[in-house]
Hints:
CATH class of the domain at 63-201: Mainly Alpha
Shape: elongated
Radius of gyration: 20 Å
Structural class: mainly alpha
Amino acid sequence: MRGRPRGFDRDAALLTATRLFWARGYDGTSLSDLTAAMGISPSSFYAAFGDKKSLFAEAVQGYMQRYTAIYIEAVRSETAREAAERILRDSADEFTDENRPMSCLVVRAAIQGGADTIDVRKTLEEHQRALAAVLAERIDEDKKAGRLSADVDAAILAEWVRTLWEGLSNQSNAGVPRVRLHEIITLAMRGWPRSTSSAGDRE
Length: 203
């Protein structure tokens, strides 16, 4: 009957789908896999999510929103260095959270996907560029305040953080535990540029 309330928890079903996409990739996850895991019929699936591609896009958007929140909260830190470290550490915690899909769903699923996921890779790239720009603006603020040298390239430094982020994601995919990821972050942050001022030299 049209308009009848769905007999399942849509949010829980979306999380189930997200976990499947993380584990198997987009192309490796079939409609029958999804409906079996969700415990719903194909007709209920189509009514709730449209199709597999739409469901994957929704899973990706929800996943990216988590990392957007991490960036937005981090750039409120006192210094850009603290913001960068917080981005990396909070993301590492997300990658290894046992109650959520492990590591970077988007990277893993998009790499394993085919033609249908090309637009998702483009969405990911645009999203990551936008987040890098947010951090670059925070870095520029530190340059103006003298906490970083004027010759620091904010865009390159933000991309350095993004590169570390992707490396942590890949390491998590390979099963590296949380504690080791944090050890990697501690070592990596030694490469953060120092200011010529005494205030910027303090870590």
